[in-house]
Design brief:
single chain, about 220 residues, alpha/beta, Rossmann fold, two-stranded antiparallel ribbon, 6 helices, 10 strands
Length: about 220
């Protein structure tokens, strides 16, 4: 019996690509349900492009500054993804807000990792937000991308404790360690068809339980 076909995944980055690297490493396993076919950045100098190239992954840079507006950049981005035969898109520190048309075109096929336990602390500076709010648990979330920022249906989450004496940097270090564990697992859920987007919610398979949720307490 032949092995199931692996989903073709493109990873979008803007910087060093630490979450990208964790996904690339996971995808080396022969039974992983996704293969990384492209790493693309809106910043030609993104360090993650070098890391991906060293791993043997095709890379591409499309500088957003070369386009007159968000929509024309998104058209070029969409064309590059389709040229690579992309089936799923992973955002890994991609610091661009998409046009609604681009999001709709990839609805149910584009996921993101966000450094908070959504729906808490959307946007940026999430660790500062968590400390200011005085929460005792913080973490990260993998979710489907929808037009509203950081508001898509949740696929998986990982929680970390907020310790006495934490500052944004120490809390960020604890969260990023969980991000590196969570994102490959969440992508595997999506790529294998175990967490599809249906009717605006994630339709987990019956009996799947909390497989997509990791807690480190």
């Amino acid at each position: 019996m032949s092995a199931p076909k692996r989903k073709r995944v493109a990873i979008l980055i803007s910087g060093r690509g630490s979450n990208m690297a964790s996904v690339i490493e996971a995808a080396k396993a022969p039974d992983y349900p996704a293969e990384i076919v492209l790493v693309l950045s809106n910043r030609p100098d993104a360090a993650g492009l070098t890391r991906a190239g060293e791993a043997g992954i095709p890379t591409q840079a499309i500088d957003h500054k070369a386009f007159r507006d968000r929509e024309t950049f998104d058209v070029a981005l969409d064309a590059a993804l389709r040229e690579a035969g992309t089936e799923l898109v992973c955002l890994a520190g991609f610091m661009r807000i998409f046009s609604a048309g681009f999001v709709e075109a990839w609805a149910g096929r584009m996921i993101n990792i966000h450094p908070s336990l959504l729906p808490l602390f959307r946007g940026t500076h999430t660790h500062e937000q968590a400390l200011q709010a005085g929460v005792r648990l913080h973490g990260c979330t993998v979710h489907y991308v929808v037009p509203e920022l950081d508001a898509g249906p949740i696929i998986a989450q990982a929680a970390v404790p907020v310790m006495a004496g934490d500052d944004p940097d120490s809390l960020a270090d604890r969260v990023i360690a969980q991000e590196h564990r969570l994102y490959p697992k969440a992508l595997a859920l999506v790529a294998s068809g175990r967490a599809p987007l249906e009717g605006g919610r994630v339709a987990f398979a019956a009996g799947q339980g909390t497989e997509g949720t990791l807690h480190s307490l």
